[in-house]
Design goal:
This protein is of the alpha+beta class and 266 residues long. It has helices at 8-27, 44-60, 90-95, 178-187, 200-212, 241-250; strands at residues 34-35, 41-42, 65-68, 73-74, 80-88, 101-108, 111-119, 124-129, 133-136, 139-141, 153-155, 171-173, 192-195, 216-219, 236-239. Helix content is 29%, strand content 25%. The strands form 3 sheets. An 8-stranded mixed beta sheet has the order 4-3-5-6-7-8-9-10, sandwiched between helices. A 5-stranded mixed beta sheet has the order 12-11-13-15-14, with helices on both faces. A two-stranded antiparallel sheet has the order 1-2. The termini are far apart.
Length: 266
């Protein structure tokens, strides 16, 4: 049976994410959402999960740097950096939806190298490693090109309609998590997604999932995205090649936030 090529420490990352997912589920009974300065939602679960993940990653990879969405930061000597999103899709978490969870990625020499995403409500573990494939619950994901027709679904951020019109012949989905949108593209459940803005912790795992599953991650100009720096030309498109060509022809160069609105991923 085909398996991802992970070493022992990398295999333990999945357990860390499962533990973080259990923390988030437990904290649902104490739910008191707050607003951050950028307008996005944060909860105690975000902070608790980040602390758990950062502590675990530092123990597993003591020479790597670790950076968390909620402010955690440790230095390293290896040249590798882990980016931690303790709860991608916090608004969906607060609303009682299914698509949210912890996600982490490792960047080596400016390129996304490995990533994990766990969706606790669905008990789905995604992982991808550069050159090692994309996986969901131990099954390899393979998704290639697909026709753009009335059955083709794309995933968009929940406020995308306030930024710009996007004529699309098929269906549009918004599940509340950028990481989950990318996982759906990698699994073939969606043909593409558009990401107006992001941080490495939002997308590192998802970009690898899409690329390793056989699809593409590109800027609106068609430049391949392989790391945080190559994603500086926004928006970023991920999906089947035919869908990306269609989307590039229908998007303005840069989405514009609605008046008074911060450009957050979800």
């Amino acid at each position: 049976m085909e398996k991802p090529g992970l070493n022992r420490a990398e295999e333990a990352v999945g357990s860390l994410l499962r533990e973080a997912g259990a923390i988030a589920l437990r904290e649902l009974v104490h739910l008191r959402p707050e607003r951050k300065s950028d307008g996005s939602v944060v909860t105690a679960a975000d902070r608790l999960c980040e602390a758990h993940l950062v502590e675990g990653l530092c123990a597993l990879f003591p020479n790597d740097a670790v950076v968390g969405e909620e402010g955690a930061s440790t230095s390293g000597s290896s040249g590798a950096t882990w980016y931690v999103d303790p709860l991608d899709g916090t608004a969906a978490y607060v609303e009682g939806l299914a698509y949210w969870g912890p996600t982490v990625c490792r960047v080596v020499e400016g390129r996304y190298d490995a990533g994990w995403l766990y969706l606790p409500r669905l008990d789905e573990m995604y992982l991808a490693k550069r050159g090692g494939g994309a996986w969901r619950n131990g099954a390899r994901l393979r998704a290639g090109d697909a026709p753009v027709d009335g059955d083709a679904s794309i995933c968009l951020p929940s406020r995308f309609h306030r930024r710009m019109p996007l004529p699309w012949p098929g269906r549009v989905r918004a599940v509340g998590s950028t990481a989950a949108h990318l996982a759906l593209v990698a699994s073939g459940s969606a043909i593409a997604t558009v990401i107006p803005s992001f941080q490495p912790w939002d997308v590192g795992c998802g970009f690898l999932l899409v690329s390793e599953a056989g699809r593409r991650v590109e800027t609106a100009e068609g430049q391949l995205v392989e790391g945080p720096e190559t994603g500086s030309h926004l928006p970023v498109l991920a999906g089947a090649p035919t869908a990306l060509r269609v989307l590039r022809g229908r998007l303005r160069r840069k989405p514009v936030a609605a008046q008074g609105e911060q450009q957050t991923t979800e």
